[in-house]
Batch of 2 targets.
Target 1
Amino acid sequence: MEFYNVPAKNITISGEFDVVVCGGGPSGCAAAIAAAGNGAKTLLIEKYGYLGGATVSQFVMPVLSMNGLDFEGVWHEWAYALDEMGGMGELRKRRGRLVDGSVDPELVKYVWDKLLTAAGARILHHAWVSEVMMDHNAICGVIVETVAGAMAIKAGRVVDCTGDGTVCNLAGVPWEQGDGKSKCAMAMTKPFRLGNAVMPEDFPSEEYNRKIDDDFKKAMESGEFSDPIITSGRIVIYLKNWTRPLANRPEMLVGGPSRILNVNPLDPWELSEAERTARAQIRQVKDYYLKYCPGCENAYFLDSSNHIGTRSTRRIQGIAKVTGEDAFNFKKSPLSIAKSSWQIDVWPADSFTASADKAPEGWNQKVYAGEYFDIPYGCLVADTVDNLLAGGRCISADHYAQSSLRIQQTCMATGEAAGTIAAMSLKAAASPRCLDPLPVVNLLKEKRKQIRPFYRLFGK
């Protein structure tokens, strides 16, 4: 392999903060709010020109929960603020779940701006972390690439909420990827939106489902579609179970039946090809919607997500790890910083139609009744590197546990906890690896009790 040696250069120190949070998605925004709220001078670094992460850039707009226990802390503040702006759609019971709804991604941007401004956190947009600053085995800042060139930002604590574990990787923290057999842990998805859709009032109904089946037979007999998302029957599963209007905008429909298979999301060449494949897939899928989805006869294509939906990449090595066995057995921990009660949601990377639900028999019923598993403190604390934490889908977990805790409300909870740990460890002058976890656990419990729950969630 041929190499190019990058010449050494001096990079200007452009700022110094107590806590630097990398990544402005649900976990990163929650981490920055928590760190700033606990008195730390906080900077949030985001590669795009807006906050919201996957909710916005990947159109992950559904609000889903099996029992509501995974809605904690910052999530309730976010939900109230979003609802006040008209960006929270009706939350209802559907298909056995306590909650099924969606949010308006454009308003999500404004809500996070509002909440971070109120918390006193500073935000740096259009900045991509390219390197880390190390002092022996401790991280002491990050290097970011910007329109002005490279900038160095010093930090007492760094929180990796990039989703991909980018900062942890640059700092040398061990990590794992994939399902144990392949680096392709899960399929990827690129959702899209249609405008001027008028869904039937009784949607979804038996009559609606019968029409979906009949029209699929017609489409297959005509031979007009070739994409496997359609020919495999995946589109039928999606039209029956996941087609939904956007939050408070019944004329806008969210479509996302795509599955891009066998992609290593950490390979930039494969990721690029996945984006192209997904766009080609959408061209046929949206045509199918316009012709065969009831209510879409006069609809038109609006847009597709900026970034292909990625479910799993790096999972860092922390000083503790939550596993599939922990999830299957609903393991509790006295050092819990978040609850996970979403399904074992593994989207197969090698099948267009295989179910994503990999829970053991009877597991879902127990969750519906109020069960959950805990995420311990140590899952957020990077192993081998001092002063480095993680929040969101890249925390220390195995393949199956991560498939549950990667849902957005749990990402907010782990981000909130990571920001709290960062601020409290600075006050105690102790690395997060050496900090007594119990005061953090107790503070999180107390602060979360003080937040008024988003009662409309439960129809109250």
Note: The two ends are 63 Å apart (CA to CA).
Target 2
Amino acid sequence: FGDLNVNDLGSFFLHNATVTITRDGDTNTTEPLNEICLRDFTAIPDSVKRGLLYALGVDFYDSSTVPNICVYTLSLDELAEYFNNNPCIGCGQEGHRYDLKIKVNGKTITSYTTIPHALALNGLGIRAVPGNDSLVNVTASISVPSTSGNFIRYWTRRNSEPYYTAFSGSVYDDKLFSGQTLTLPVERGIPGYVTNPDPVTYGYFWKGDTVTVKWTNIDSRTFDFYNTLENDGGGSPFSSPVRVKSNVSGDSAIGIWAGYGARYYTITIPR
């Protein structure tokens, strides 16, 4: 409950861990991950640094005090292959399972996730907002398979802003919609540090906006994590406590190892 300074974030990361991922239980596909830290790359544009901090829920405002946030990821060569749409062992692919193993400070942490096949949208549309000639609703049309067990997580991007999740929650299951074709509103996402969104513009987009929706399929373990995390009562002292369903195992470990079957959709709203 004490104060948290943005520069403290760098001190929370554990360095020099041994991190590996294995695909489909085949040890021949085991891939080591490399530790890459933000301050190692001085040429990274501020917009990229800002997007990374926004993803962590930090309101980034001073480029001279960027915390040394680190990630464990593929080698730069493999990342280049991935962004050029070339296959690589460590690059996530739909329909596969990925096991995670972390060894650090004498502890071992493990998890697994799957990347489901993406359930494509039929398309995006727009609807007018009654009584307001500047705002619009963006909608998504989707045909839900008759087989149950489909889980969705989505983000939105407005123009050149980062991708944000919706304030009301980003994950859904198909319990109520199995076998149906329906059109749903796509709520405009906001940064994680915003706790009181504007009630007039909340969820809407503006005329002239270019809107991109990142629509992903996730497995049940990933759904359970985010569903419990996003429904924890919002920090209210009067809410019931919710135990977040972590999908990682190990001494004092809690968190999420998630795979996404992703599709991207863009619509430009007429002025």
Note: The longest helix spans residues 220-230.
